[in-house]
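Working notes for the structural subgroup meeting. M.R. asked for a predicted model of this chain before we commit to crystallization trials. I am recording the input and output together here so anyone reviewing the notebook later can reproduce the run.

Input as submitted:
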Amino acid sequence: MSYSVGQVAAFAGVTVRTLHHYDEIGLLVPGGRSHAGHRRYDDADLDRLQQILFYRELGFPLEEVAALLDDPDADPRAHLRRQHELLTARIEKLRKMAAAVEHAMEARTMGINLTPEERFEVFGDKDPERYAEEAEARWGGTEAYAESQRRAARYTKDDWKRIQAEVDAWSERYAALMAAGGLPDGEAAMDLAEEHRRHIGTWYYECPYEMHRCLGEMYVADERFKAFYDTMRPGLAEHLKEAILANAARHTS
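Returned structure, recorded in token form:
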């Protein structure tokens, strides 16, 4: 089975001119020619083209790509492993960049008036809008979210340091409770759930028990929030949800 230069260009999403250039510099010489002298590419040529395009996407110059692919001691599987490692690293870098941009946009929306240096000093790699973001996801456009914006716009660096310290201390105590085998409907867990609710009410917006129940359900239903709490300790999101429900029940029953 062989393919014309036009077919290969369509398969790979490159131009015919690019394939001609690769042939001219010896990077990808087609395995055959038609009776009329036209280029014909076989499956091995397509495999090589795929390798070339992988390396080009990773930013390798053509000369280095040729050297890598023409190494007589190279194992094709080693090429794939190398490319997989490089792509995985690139994906992770882009993911972190996207998260940083997202957090910056959220902070701007929330009116957090901190310099970049202050932002890193206070939050490091953590998200300063975690509770406000939750409010926006469920109640965007409501008075609760508007109130969180108004409050956040007034906070200084010291205020954000205090907020972050409270969150860190709470998460450490909750993880310790779980490590000790504390049950979600135990008094200690319910007290921590109540502290969680009051933290939201103190710093962001009024959070009555019914709203807190909704937040608890969202912590396990939404993968974003579940991942955030489960990084404190695996299973914490589900545990906290049950503690929130138990705490709401004891205060409203």
